[in-house]
Amino acid sequence: MTVAILVVLLGSGVAGFATWLSGADEAAAEAAPVARGFDVVGPRYQPTAADRARTPARITPTTPLVALTFDDGPTPELTPYVLDVLAAKGAKATFFFQGDQVEKHPDIARRAQAEGHVIALHSYEHVYFPDLDGPRAREQIVRGEESLTRVLGVRPTMWRYPFGEASPVADAVLAERRLVGGVGWDWKSSLKGDFECPGADAVTRLVVTEARDDAVILLHDGGDAVTCAAPQWEYLPRAIDAVRDRGLELGVVVPTGRPNGAEETAVVAP
Ligand SMILES: [Zn+2]
Question: CB of 105 within 8 A of CB of 256?
């Protein structure tokens, strides 16, 4: 798999907590019941008639697979919606969770795990590793690893750097902890990412443009994406349908067991 890191993400603080709700959406969100025992403050997705009539995807060894990956969660604003859509579409994804977010929203993290998605680590609190010395890099990795292990009961084995920015001292810790650290993403176009709030049409176009066999697509269920206007999130069911219309299916990212090589991870059938 060739993974090119061509963009540097903007800062990812969860500023403007839930400020994206428009007036009408805000009223709907307040009226909506809290479902399944965890906090939900964002939109939910109801399966359509077409979703309910969908036949399960047939994935063969030659089916081209694209992986949707979601970073910076879990959050009550976006993760439940993403999970709703994936369930309605019969699709699996790969989540790069932050340790601090998993501690704040353990039930949402457990829901993602229970629904069969791949869970990987994205540091404890989304730090910029090139600025960190060895001990601080170690703390961000180990503390995040411990958070996911405590909440999910399994140790993460895969890692993505915040902002895609690695450092030699952090690489050494990742190798010691046996965390596969090479998960970047494909971004061959100059289209805007979901964290830049370009709207549903633009994010759908990004996903469809980048979708090809073995592609890893960067999306977010936390961070700056939380501040985008709620209708942007309608991109996800549309993008999944559009990707399938092009003959691709949804895969997940997993370690290959060949650490420190060019093929540390692969996109495989869920
Ligand atoms: Zn991130």
Answer: no
* Nearest-angstrom CA–CA distance, 166 and 189: 23
Q: How many degrees, rounded to 5, is the angle at CA 127 between CA 136 and CA 147?
A: 75
Is residue 105 annotated as part of the catalytic site, yes or no? no
Domains (ranges, CATH) in the chain?
59-268 (3.20.20.370)
pTM over 0.70: yes
pLDDT string in tens for the chain (270-residue length): 333 433 333 333 333 333 333 334 444 444 444 445 678 888 899 999 999 998 888 899 999 999 999 999 999 999 999 999 999 999 999 999 999 999 999 999 999 999 999 999 999 999 999 999 999 999 999 999 999 999 999 999 999 999 999 999 999 999 999 998 777 888 889 999 999 999 999 999 999 999 999 999 999 999 999 999 989 999 999 999 999 999 999 999 999 877 655 678 999 999
Out of 105, 220, 221, 224, which one is annotated catalytic? 220
Distance 34 CA to ligand 1 centre (A): 27
Using the mean position of ligand 1's atoms as its centre, give its distance from the Cα of residue 119 in Å. 14
How close is the Cα of 9 to the center of ligand 1, in Å?
Answer: 8
Give yes or no for a cis peptide into 74 (omega within 30° of 0): yes
Annotated catalytic residue: which of 71, 72, 84, 194?
A: 71
